[in-house]
Design a protein that fits this description.
Elements (H helix, E strand, L loop, with lengths): L4 E8 L5 H10 L11 E10 L2 E10 L11 H6 L2 E7 L3 H17 L6 E6 L15 H8 L1 E5 L6 H32 L6 H22 L1
Parallel strand pairs: 1-3, 1-4, 4-5, 5-6
Antiparallel strand pairs: 2-3
Bound molecules: guanosine-5'-triphosphate and magnesium ion.
Magnesium ion (MG) binds next to helix 1.
Length: 214
């Protein structure tokens, strides 16, 4: 976890539109067909709230979703995740929920998560009740449920990824502040390093005083 480097994992059942979402977010385009892969990492620098953020987005192919062990290593390095389902596929929602549970079990410190219903342009074939719970979920459970369409809502896709990145940076900031406070409040009065620095300061004053009076 260095500076403004953010690693995001994108998971979900086969065909829900993970690659379409990632490509939409990173390039602004929708291509209709996407090559399948086990795991693909995309790196990109973005400017968010006047900050440079180095993003690494890892797209885990739906075929390897059951071999969850394949992404265990990536899992320890990630700062947040987007778990995707399709609003037209009820089973993909169940899979997504079980992936969220699994992620929260695997990561002892909760990472910000988005449970994302894709293909909202296909509302006429909806099989999952409309979900949207931004504020309450972030606050209470650390994850957010939202919907978007990789095919027709570029802005919506970007908004969701940006919200996740902001949440990750916010969490990191809070963590750093707490750590700084803790290390200050636990600064040992008598640590050898501090004592040496203190004596050196005192001694230099003493020699300066002596020299000036000579
Ligand atoms: N209508 C509609 N189709 C979409 C949307 N997003 C993706 N698709 C289509 O859904 C199909 C699957 O999309 P992918 O992005 O390949 O899905 P995936 O989740 O990456 O699939 P795997 O890599 O096999 O796990 C493609 O034919 C896309 O064109 C969307 O928002 N709306
Ligand atoms: Mg894919």
């Amino acid at each position: 976890m260095k500076g403004n480097t953010v690693n995001i994992l994108v998971l979900g059942k086969e065909g829900v539109g993970k690659t379409a979402l990632v490509v939409r977010f990173l390039t602004g385009r929708f291509l209709t067909e996407y090559a399948q892969c086990d795991e693909m990492a995309y790196e990109r620098s973005i400017t968010l709230d006047e900050k440079q953020v180095s993003l690494k987005v890892i797209d885990v192919g739906g075929k390897s979703i059951d071999k969850k062990s394949s992404s265990k290593e990536s899992l320890q390095k990630i700062d947040g995740a987007v778990v995707v389902y399709s609003i037209t596929d009820r089973h993909s929602f169940d899979v997504a929920e079980s992936v969220v549970d699994w992620l929260r079990r695997e990561r002892s410190s909760c990472i910000p998560l988005v449970l994302l219903g894709n293909k909202s342009d296909l509302d006429h074939s909806r099989a999952v009740t409309s979900q949207n719970s931004e504020d309450i979920e972030w606050r209470n459970t650390g994850y957010m449920i939202s919907e978007c369409s990789a095919s027709s809502d570029s802005e919506g896709v970007t908004k969701i990824f940006h919200m996740l990145v902001r949440k990750i940076l916010e969490k990191r900031d809070t963590h750093l502040k707490v750590q700084r406070k803790l290390s200050l409040s636990h600064a040992p009065l008598g640590s050898p390093k501090l004592i040496r620095a203190h004596l050196r300061r005192r001694f230099s004053v003493f020699t300066r005083e002596r020299t000036s009076t000579m």
